[in-house]
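From the methods appendix. Each design record in this collection lists the tokenized structure first, followed by the designed amino acid sequence. Records were kept in a plain field format so they could be parsed without special tools. The example shown here is representative of the layout used throughout.

RECORD:
FOLD TOKENS (371 positions):
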């Protein structure tokens, strides 16, 4: 009775206003189907978006891992190249020392063999290869440098200017060097004493005594690593030139005020009193191709050479103490290692034909470039 009445009631309403109505069965079940059909696509869309985010995150993780792996591989390769370059540089120094000892011990044999042309030792540059790597060793007798402990103020100022240091920084460097090595505690106009160095971190005092090593200059006010080791500089036309540093021009292994013309860098020649920049350039270019036998060759062979006073500051005599600057890089690598060593050759020593006075493996790579 209840079902029948319901069907009757529905049936009586099925044509209200002439519009057919759905049966009671569809009226009850249809709303449930429509809700389910709407919910399923929505849930699937949410799951799809979540999966896309997960895939994106995994892609970023994989990319980061790949990048870190590439960096680690490159770092390991670079470290290995630097290690290989280090041993190539050491081999270059040992080879150069052997050739220098051989030359000093057999000068008569060389003359008898007619070897009058300058060899790499005479020209101051030895090059070679080892296991695919290449090295270049620059040889400089310490007599080709200015003695740091006896240099005059005027020559020191000319040297700083010839290196290319500006006047303001140059005045500070010169006055501070003189204050560092003089015995008193009074300071010059642009110099420095204990009160200045006490403000640094860590603090220290001025030495007020002669220099024991050239590296002490790094403690002196105004002497930056660039001014000490040398630095690259871009010119007005866009090219790059490499400036000599103070370490290539000053020494503590010589107490003479004469300069060996065959080993002196161009700034050192320009600092000699009475030598013009033009004359210094001619001397420098000539001795790089063919070293002078005596200083008299300068007056005889070069036009407009310096006068007798200037020539009195020049010599061709060597001290036997040499700076060897070795720069090397491994095969198929631009990573470079530079080592600077100072050796003392002993002609009479049998067990130790030479002595290492100084060894530095932490030299900036641009010092190995020869201007």
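DESIGN:
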């Amino acid at each position: 009775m209840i079902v029948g009445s319901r069907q009757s009631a529905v049936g009586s309403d099925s044509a209200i206003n002439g519009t057919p109505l759905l049966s009671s069965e569809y009226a009850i079940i249809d709303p449930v189907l429509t809700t389910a059909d709407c919910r399923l696509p929505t849930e699937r869309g949410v799951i799809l978006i979540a999966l896309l985010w997960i895939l994106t995150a995994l892609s970023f993780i994989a990319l980061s891992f790949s990048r870190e792996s590439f960096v680690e591989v490159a770092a390991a390769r670079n470290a290995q190249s630097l290690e290989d370059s280090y041993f190539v540089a050491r081999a270059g120094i040992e080879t150069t020392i052997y050739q220098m000892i051989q030359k000093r011990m057999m000068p008569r044999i060389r003359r008898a063999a007619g070897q009058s042309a300058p060899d790499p030792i005479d020209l101051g540059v030895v090059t070679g290869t080892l296991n695919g790597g290449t090295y270049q060793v620059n040889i400089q007798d310490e007599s080709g440098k200015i003695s740091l402990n006896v240099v005059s103020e005027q020559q020191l100022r000319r040297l700083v200017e010839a290196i290319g240091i500006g006047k303001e920084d140059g005045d500070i460097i010169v006055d501070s060097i003189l204050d560092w090595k003089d015995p008193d505690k009074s300071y010059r106009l642009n110099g420095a004493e204990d009160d200045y160095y006490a403000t640094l971190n860590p603090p220290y005092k001025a030495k007020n005594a002669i220099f024991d090593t050239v590296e002490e200059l790094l403690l002196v006010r105004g002497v930056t690593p660039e001014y000490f080791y040398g630095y690259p500089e871009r010119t007005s036309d866009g090219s790059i030139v490499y400036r000599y540093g103070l370490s290539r021009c000053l020494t503590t292994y010589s107490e003479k005020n004469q300069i060996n013309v065959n080993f002196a860098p161009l700034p050192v020649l320009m600092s000699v009193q009475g030598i013009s920049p033009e004359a210094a350039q001619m001397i420098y270019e000539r001795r790089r191709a063919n070293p002078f036998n005596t200083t008299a060759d300068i007056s005889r062979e070069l036009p407009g050479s310096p006068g007798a006073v200037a020539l009195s500051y020049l010599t061709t005599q060597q001290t036997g103490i040499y700076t060897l600057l070795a720069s090397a890089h491994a095969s198929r690598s631009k990573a470079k290692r530079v080592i600077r060593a100072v050796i003392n050759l002993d002609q009479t020593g049998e067990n130790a034909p030479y002595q290492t006075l100084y060894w530095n493996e932490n030299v900036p790579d641009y010092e190995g470039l020869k201007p």
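APPENDIX NOTE: Residues 89-151+225-368 form one domain.
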